[in-house]
C-alpha cells in the first residue's frame, strides 16, 4: 500500500503524515509513506486544498486533517 501525503509541509500536512503513519502501524499494514510536496504533482491529483491523503494514487480526503479513526477507515476501504 502506498500512502501519499499531499501538501507543502505546513503544520497540518505534518500532522496528517503523523496520523496516517500511526493508523497504518496500528492496523499492521505493509505500507510506504510518501510526502508529495511539488505543487504540480499535487495538482495532478486534482487537489486544490491541502493537506490531502491519497492511498495507492486515489485521493481519499483533502482540505482537512481527519481523526485517527477516520484515517483507519480510509486505509481499510
UniProtKB/TrEMBL annotation:
Thioredoxin-like fold domain ranges (all copies): 1-76
InterPro entries xrefs: Thioredoxin-like_fold (IPR012336), Thioredoxin-like_sf (IPR036249), THIRX-like_proc (IPR005243)
Residues at the active site: 10 (nucleophile), 13 (nucleophile)
Disulfide linkage: 10-13
UniProtKB keywords: Disulfide bond, Redox-active center
Protein name (Swiss-Prot/TrEMBL): Redox-active disulfide protein 2
Keyword ATP-binding tagged: no
SUPFAM superfamilies according to UniProt: Thioredoxin-like
Species this chain originates from: Candidatus Ozemobacter sibiricus
NCBIfam families in UniProt: redox_disulf_2
Amino acid at each position: 500500500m502506498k500512502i501519499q501525503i499531499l501538501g507543502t509541509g505546513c503544520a497540518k500536512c505534518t500532522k496528517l503524515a503523523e496520523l496516517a503513519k500511526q493508523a497504518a502501524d496500528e492496523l499492521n499494514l505493509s505500507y510506504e509513506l510518501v510526502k508529495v510536496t511539488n505543487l504540480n504533482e499535487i495538482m495532478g491529483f486534482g487537489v486544490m486544498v491541502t493537506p490531502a491523503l491519497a492511498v495507492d494514487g486515489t485521493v481519499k480526503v483533502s482540505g482537512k486533517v481527519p481523526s485517527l479513526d477516520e484515517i483507519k477507515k480510509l486505509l481499510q476501504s
